[in-house]
What does this fold into?
Amino acid sequence: MDTSELIRNLKNSGVIIPKTIENAMLKVSIEDFTEHDYMGFYHDRPVVFLETPSGGVKTISAPHMIATLLHNLELDSGQHIVIYGAKGGYISALVAHIVGESGHVTVLDPSIEVINYISNNLRGYPTVDCHTISELSEVKLPKLNRVLVTGQIHGLPEWLSDGIEDGGFAIAPIGNMDSQRLLKLEKQGDSLFETDLGSVIFGPVDIDDTIVGTPSPEEMAELVEQVVELMSDIGIIEQDDRSKLYDLVAELRLLPDDLPPPEELDDPSQHPMMQLILQKGEWFVKLWPMIQSMIQPRIASYASPENTDQRDNHSDFIP
It folds into this structure.
């Protein structure tokens, strides 16, 4: 599959892709913005562009979400666009093509690792400059007319909300880590007026906020319990394994819930929760990959195994 086919499939599934966005997508190659496997992008999936040693992960959003964001941003040539959240540089490259040589793109991100990564990817884009949020005092931002926030935030930061000019607006996924609303926030006088564009699930803007710590014993117990119930509902667990997992849940709940996480110990295998799990032996090791696959979020799209009907519309916006 190539970009032309991707665009055709997106349009067939009901995604609005104006000609300016389509032309930009045809000029920008996703493989130039990630060293990870990118083939899922052509099946309307997000792709990873950066993983940190500490466990942080950042992705480039699925194509339908990117097209939706850019469509709602109402881009035109000559505009200065501010993007908060780097997304590997791919979205910035698309915007740079749309606003043209007379326009400009300023990318801001909390992480120096992310900025270093995308600065390298965007070397061929002279109208794009990249900065960390810590450099804001040194960056000469214009009065903000169009701002795109590409990751989950609880609310617009003050520098952003105060900087939007009258009649300007921001597009941002506002909410908690599990669910957000994609909002258009337009400045009218001293107030921001909201237009709700739909339900979305974005990862956080800051890559440090994507680091997932080891669950506490109670959290692990709840997790295993939920997975057992789900596996039972769809008939993929034997009764003996089901009973053993429920026994594990009970034993996990007997452990103190204020234990330090395993990674804080010199030898994580000596952590009481890890020892308990290791004691379960081969039967738990056999089930663990299945448990992991059950708890990882799935993102359905027109070309995913869960939904192969390419005529289906996207009722939810999921990055």
